[in-house]
């Protein structure tokens, strides 16, 4: 196994210093050319599209939740709750991510409100993610600096399979983290990422989470049924399968340590239903290159810059197949990159030499 297979992906390890020495930390990234006036239009925030999206999400949750409620006690509950859990998990996670950026609503407090609510629904604290995600966008797939690299090279298959249903979190990681924060403690990585001025918010978020979920658990005992948790909390686990697959397509199999989002982020086309559930995060290269563009403007942004980017995967299944095939190859060759992205990188390099 070569040296690339043995890299330390921790943001507190030796790769961090190497990334700094190589000029990869907090560096300048390539951005596709786009007229200034057009970019100003695309970054404009509007309340109406965001409000409409939230309304449709609540309707989808209510409809699928009602079907699941009617099915409770029968075998139909399995597919019904699988559907509800998928709508709950994929939408909550993608909206949590988007509203954490503060871009959908023009009114700032509305973005924060949705961010905090969705954080509660998926049991991942808002303050934690806000600062880890800032680093993810600043140093996207820079080994030793990006805390959100989903898998190292070669991949850890056992961990990947566990992530399909957040098994480790369900077995206690989430509770451990919440109790630790509730008692005012942080781990070393959190101390590296989160400013001390934000510790108080992190601690109070954990305490509120624990109080609210304690109330839901108490309700379960009161009604002698796990049903309340089946609607709030547990869907973030039993409905997480599709979200893990979507997350995998974002960066896996692509380049590491490149200051060009076209080489480390994957865009794919998909149907309107999945785009709605995923809050347009299938336009992932566009989102990383211009993170201040609201999700409802990403399709238009894609049209503006697509000629300067690798071709989008034609569908979600195609993107997932490409990702899984790449992971399978990377298990033996940690330097492997999806061929069409390597070809695109070679073309960029040739164009730069010819300029």
From TrEMBL:
InterPro entries, per the entry: FA_desaturase_dom, Fatty_acid_desaturase
One GO location term (cellular component): membrane
Membrane-crossing residue ranges in chain numbering: 54-78, 113-131, 208-231
Domain of life (superkingdom): Bacteria
Domain Fatty acid desaturase: 74-314
Keywords: Membrane, Transmembrane, Transmembrane helix
Protein name (Swiss-Prot/TrEMBL): Fatty acid desaturase
Signal peptide: none
Gene Ontology terms describing biological process: lipid biosynthetic process
Gene Ontology MF terms in the entry: oxidoreductase activity, acting on paired donors, with oxidation of a pair of donors resulting in the reduction of molecular oxygen to two molecules of water
Keyword Nucleotidyltransferase: no
Pfam families referenced in this protein's UniProt entry, alphabetically: FA_desaturase
């Amino acid at each position: 196994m070569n040296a690339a297979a043995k890299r330390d992906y921790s943001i507190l390890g030796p790769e961090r210093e190497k990334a700094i020495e190589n000029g990869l930390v907090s560096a300048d990234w390539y951005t596709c050319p786009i007229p200034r006036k057009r970019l100003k239009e695309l970054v404009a925030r509007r309340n109406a599209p965001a409000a409409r999206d939230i309304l449709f999400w609540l309707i989808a949750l209510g409809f699928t939740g009602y079907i699941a409620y009617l099915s409770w006690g029968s075998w139909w509950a399995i597919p019904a709750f699988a559907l509800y859990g998928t709508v709950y998990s994929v939408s909550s996670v993608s909206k949590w991510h988007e509203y954490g950026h503060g871009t959908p609503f023009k009114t700032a407090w509305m973005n924060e409100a949705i961010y905090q609510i969705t954080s509660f629904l998926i049991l991942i604290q808002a303050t934690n993610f806000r600062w880890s995600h800032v680093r993810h966008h600043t140093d996207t797939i820079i080994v030793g600096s990006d805390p959100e690299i989903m898998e190292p090279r070669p991949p850890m298959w056992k961990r990947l399979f566990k992530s399909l249903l957040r098994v480790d979190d369900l077995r206690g990681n989430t509770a451990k983290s919440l109790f630790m924060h509730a008692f005012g403690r942080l781990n070393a990585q959190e101390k590296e990422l989160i400013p001390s001025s934000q510790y108080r918010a992190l601690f109070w978020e954990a305490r509120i989470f624990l109080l609210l979920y304690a109330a839901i658990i108490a309700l379960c005992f009161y009604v002698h049924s796990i049903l309340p948790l089946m609607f709030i909390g547990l869907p973030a686990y039993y409905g997480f399968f599709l979200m893990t697959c979507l997350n995998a397509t974002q960066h896996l199999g692509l380049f590491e340590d490149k200051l060009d989002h076209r080489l480390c982020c994957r865009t794919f086309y998909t149907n309107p239903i999945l785009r709605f559930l995923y809050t347009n995060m299938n336009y992932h290269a566009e989102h990383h290159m211009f993170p201040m563009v609201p999700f409802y403007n990403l399709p238009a942004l894609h049209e503006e810059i697509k000629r300067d980017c690798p071709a989008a995967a034609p569908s979600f299944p195609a993107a997932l197949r490409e990702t899984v095939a790449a992971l399978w190859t990377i298990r033996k060759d940690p330097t492997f990159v999806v061929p069409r992205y390597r070809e695109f990188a070679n073309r960029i390099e040739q164009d730069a030499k010819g300029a």
